Amino acid sequence: MSKNHPHPVLADRHDYLPAAGNDLLLPAYELISRLFGTPALHDRLIEQAELQPGHRVIEIGCGTGSLTIKAKRAQPAAEVTGSDPDPKALARAERKTHGLRGIRFERAYAQELPHPDKEFDRVFSALMLHHIPVDIKGPAIAEAFRVLRPGGRLHLLDIGGDTTPADGFLARQIQRSHSIAGNLGDGIPRLLEAAGFDYTLLDSHPHRHMGRIVYYRATRPA
Questions:
Q1: How far is the C-alpha of 6 from the C-alpha of 90, rounded, in Å?
Q2: Quick check: helix, strand or coil at residue 38?
């Protein structure tokens, strides 16, 4: 279905997981991300995306905007948008842009993007999918497909894949979370396939803080 008009204003809705899991932890979010090694994960995702001048890029669930800003700096001639339902995180993201042009932040849910069909060349989803409820994962991936141009790509980084003994104790423990469990095994491939993507698993490796990390490149067929 075509969606060529903005969605209603989100107003005071708070039916989302804050960027740090709790509003009170938001000031420590950047430190937590660095301790988890997130900047290096972001670097690899941007490299895989092969951003080009003139690309229109959106990150869904951008939090405080670290990946969105890094993508803009990696390809200054791209137009980059960060999207998140958390207004407090977005306020921090805005303050971090330091006068960069061609970058903006908006308040929106991953499953309700206020953009026309076929608007973007790249969609980023970085460590966001495991946070959202199982019944929202499919609509969020379908929305990424909708806003991508034919030949455009979703680059997804998240907890996923099959847990092995080498992944350690934490990898086994996170399976107790219902939303994370929806990412594991063939969970992410099934979501991508259902949305209509052609996809490739680019990497899968254990992470000492998050169990197993996977990178997918998913292309909207031309």
A1: 19
A2: helix
CA distances 81 to 24, 90, 97, 126, Å, are 26, 11, 12, 14
**Burial state string for 154-165 with b = 16 or more CB within 10 A and e = fewer than 16:** bbbbbbbbebee
Spatial separation of the C-alpha atoms in residues 57 and 147, rounded to whole Å? 10
User: Could you say which DSSP state residue 24 is in?
Assistant: G
Cβ neighbours of residue 209 under 8 Å, at least 6 residues apart?
35, 36, 37, 170
- CA atoms of 211 and 167, how far apart (whole Å): 6
Give all strands (DSSP E) within the chain, no chain letters.
Answer: 56-60, 79-84, 103-107, 120-126, 148-159, 198-207, 211-219
The pTM for the full model equals: 0.85
Summarised one tens digit per residue, pLDDT across range 31-80 is 777 777 899 999 999 999 999 999 999 999 999 999 999 999 999 999 99
Rg (CA), the chain: 16
User: What domains does the chain contain, in order, with CATH numbers?
Assistant: 35-219 (3.40.50.150)
DSSP 63-97: TTSHHHHHHHHH-TTSEEEEEES-HHHHHHHHHTS
